[in-house]
Design goal:
- The chain has 343 residues and is an alpha/beta fold.
- It has one domain: Thiamin diphosphate (ThDP)-binding fold, Pyr/PP domains (Rossmann fold, 3-Layer(aba) Sandwich).
- Helices cover 36% and strands 12% of the residues.
- It contains nine helices and ten strands.
- The strands form three sheets. Strands 4-3-5-6-10-9 form a six-stranded parallel beta sheet, sandwiched between helices.
- It binds thiamine diphosphate.
């Protein structure tokens, strides 16, 4: 382990004494900026041509859209410890995790736009990004990511590799049977899985406290005799530190861990959600984790105006390239509607 004096602005994140050097901290920031830039572009393209009455079936991206703005600290902090050989299962709100895990932006955008060049030839759409290259998958079925992560971890263990599986889902999903059954089996079989709960306070319009008996899902880890940690404050560095411990444990063959991050859903549950149920709505923008982290890194001497502008420009270039690629790609031939799908 390096010392704090080696790199300007380096810190130890939380009580776990995990070291973050300056380059890692800037890397976390840049990942978050890339995720946000992608979501802002999708937001723009999604709402274009939806008509005055917001017709969800219209426009370049018809259908539902669940964006992850505000939840970038989870993606950046966790995925920093993974390689694309590790499996990651996500949810109906998957973009930040896919990007942080290294998914190619062109094929991802094309899938979201329903184009033939997309990861699933445009058949899956934004909730169904399946990428063999990065071992990423997700589903619109709440809590569906847990059992497949378990299966992948089981295979990795049997193959004698140090690959791991990470299963990420919302706090709403943590009340499902699949969550508990998966953790139980992973603990019993000492499988290399990291379970991550993104607690954004809301499952659509249901507040966390109306659905979940425990204040912290980390306490549920006790029931399965595995480590559990809750990260407060949507803190990317504390998330990074907790994920480092959990990933190391999984790679070392010591079994699963559970991490819950108290994060933030900056926008609606889905695009078009008026969020009348959300009393804190007016304050939400002030909790945005990206400007907050930017200030921390500026104060540490790791970012200045030029570096911030460069990160924004780099992200914009990558994202607009992907969006242009998607928009200029062909739609699937209607005659092939029943190809590549279970019909
Ligand atoms: C099995 C199943 N039940 C219900 C739904 C409808 N649904 C979609 S998202 C959602 C809430 C999920 O909340 P949470 O797990 O906290 O994730 P978040 O949307 O906050 O990211 C529900 C109930 C679904 N997609 N799948």
């Amino acid at each position: 382990m390096t010392t704090e004096t080696e790199s300007p602005g380096s810190v130890r994140a939380d009580s776990g004494q995990q070291h973050l050097d300056g380059a890692t901290r800037v890397g976390l920031y840049e990942t978050m900026v890339l995720c946000r830039t992608f979501e802002e572009a999708i937001l723009r393209e999604y709402h274009a041509d939806k008509g005055p009455g917001f017709d969800i079936g219209k426009g370049l991206i018809p259908g539902e859209m669940h964006l992850s703005a505000g939840q970038e600290p989870v993606a950046a902090g966790v995925c920093a410890h993974l390689t694309t050989d590790d499996a990651l299962t996500a949810t109906h709100r998957p973009h930040h995790l896919a990007i942080a895990h290294g998914m190619g932006l062109r094929a991802m955008a094309a899938e979201i736009f329903g184009r033939e060049t997309g990861l699933g030839r445009g058949r899956g759409g934004h909730m169904h990004l399946f990428d063999p290259a990065t071992h990423f998958s997700c589903s619109g079925i709440v809590a569906e990511g847990y059992p497949p992560a378990l299966g992948q971890a089981f295979a990795f263990k049997r193959q004698g590799t140090d690959r791991i599986a990470v299963a990420v889902a919302g706090e709403g999903a943590s009340n499902s049977g699949a969550f508990h059954e998966s953790i139980n089996l992973a603990a019993m079989w000492t499988l290399p899985v990291v379970f991550v709960v993104e607690d954004n306070d809301w499952a659509i319009s249901v507040p966390r406290d109306a659905a979940t008996a425990v204040k912290s899902n980390a306490t549920r880890a006790v029931a399965y005799d595995i480590p559990g940690e809750r990260i407060e404050g949507n803190d990317v560095e504390a998330t990074w530190a907790a994920a480092k411990r959990a990933v190391a444990r999984a790679r070392a063959g010591e079994g699963p861990s559970l991490i819950e991050v108290h994060t933030l859903r900056l926008w609606g549950h889905f695009e078009g959600d008026a969020q009348g149920y959300r009393p804190e709505l007016a304050e939400v923008p002030s909790y945005d984790p990206i400007p907050r982290y930017e200030q921390i890194l500026r104060a540490a001497g790791l970012l200045d105006d030029d570096a911030v502008a460069r990160a924004a420009a780099t992200a914009k270039e990558k994202v607009e390239d992907a969006v242009d690629f998607a928009k200029n790609s062909p739609l699937p031939d209607p005659a092939s509607a029943t190809s590549y799908v279970f019909a």
